[in-house]
Design brief:
349 residues, mainly beta, 0% helix
């Protein structure tokens, strides 16, 4: 069952290091804050500041409180900075604040703006607990540039910014093997995952004719080789710095079974096909059951990283309850379907 929606207040204070984009009318920067809903079918939840018309518009001050009416724990916030012109608005850059950084203790600090190397956005999200930000005096400031975990896919461990080292298992905790199924068997229910693909850094320039259009495919590496492919993909990034692209997309992925890894492949879309930038393999012990938020190294690109967030949403809903026997399956609903032991049914999830 999804947690209840609640109202969220976000204070957009100021920005630093923006670009001068509108030479004719002058710069009028404003910020749009949007909730990245886990459920893509929900209506958009967003609010925006007023444009700044006076003072230093490359370091604008808004000091506005934005109210977001529908937010659930686990949903990230996306901030897009625009520069309003005579005919339309140009995008300065984007920033993402994962839920883990402001829920439930709040957040006060600077976050990096993707696409502008020296730009920062100052925000405050009040604590959702009584009192001030937990353990944070009023004068304390945080700078959030990237999530606190950097996981190297090619090494057996990953480390945080504070220097602590967490050793991942040196051997896989699962293996693909033949299992003799009894007449009835209980297995872990298939799960649904929320996969947020936020941004990448340090990609290569691969399409010199059409320009780079990178996108990411996330696929479940099923233990059962006969299982149908389970994957999602982002839209190609066609604007801004495509060597450091920003997607900011959240997808639901399932079914996923305990013990299965996730593989992320970064492609560069061209005129005829797509070229592979690199891959990331995230083993299940890193995101199950408590989720994952961090930068992962991209194999094949020595300095490239991918920023992802994984959350476990819970079991996949099964419409027909079945009882497995040696020969067939009887459904408790009107529809009947045959299931042979040792083979995966297309209706099974």
């Amino acid at each position: 069952m999804a947690p209840p929606s609640q109202k969220l207040v976000v204070n957009v204070i100021q920005a630093e290091g923006l670009q001068h984009m509108n030479h004719f009318t002058g710069d009028h920067p404003f910020v749009v804050c949007e909730v990245k809903h886990v459920d893509p079918n929900l209506p958009a939840t967003k609010a925006e500041t007023k444009p700044v018309n006076e003072g230093d518009t490359t370091c604008p001050v808004w000091n506005e409180a934005l109210e977001l009416d529908s937010w659930q724990p686990g949903e990230a916030l996306q901030f897009t900075i625009y520069d309003k012109g005579l005919l339309g608005s140009k995008t300065e850059g984007k920033a993402m604040l994962p839920s883990e950084f402001f829920y439930p203790n709040g957040f006060r600090g600077m976050i990096s703006v993707v696409g502008l190397p020296d730009a920062r956005l100052r925000l405050e999200v009040p604590s959702m607990m009584e009192g001030q930000l937990s353990g944070m005096p009023a004068s304390t400031s945080i700078t959030y540039q990237a999530p606190p975990v950097v996981y190297a896919a090619s090494t057996p461990g990953f480390s945080s910014q504070i220097g602590a080292t967490y050793a991942a298992p040196t051997q896989s905790v699962y293996s693909s093997q033949q299992v003799m199924m009894p007449e009835t068997v209980q297995v872990a229910a298939p799960q649904k995952l929320s996969v947020s693909i936020l941004q990448a850094q340090g990609l290569q320039h691969m399409n010199h004719f059409t320009g780079d259009q990178p996108y990411v495919v996330c696929e479940v590496k099923h233990v059962d080789a006969q299982a149908e492919a389970t994957r999602v993909e982002t839209k190609p990034a066609t604007e801004g710095d495509t060597l450091n692209p920003f997607w900011g997309e959240t997808h639901q992925l399932g079914p996923w079974h305990e013990g299965e890894s996730l593989e992320f492949t970064i492609y560069d879309k061209g005129l005829i096909g797509a070229k592979t930038e690199g891959k990331v393999l995230l083993t299940p012990d890193l995101f199950y059951p408590n989720g994952f938020s961090g930068m992962v190294n991209i194999s094949g690109l020595p300095h490239a990283q991918l920023h992802i967030i994984i959350r476990v949403l819970g079991p996949v809903a099964v419409e027909n309850e079945t009882v497995v026997t040696d020969g067939a399956t009887k459904s408790k609903k009107k529809k009947k379907k045959e299931v042979k032991v040792g083979k995966k049914s297309k209706g099974c999830c």
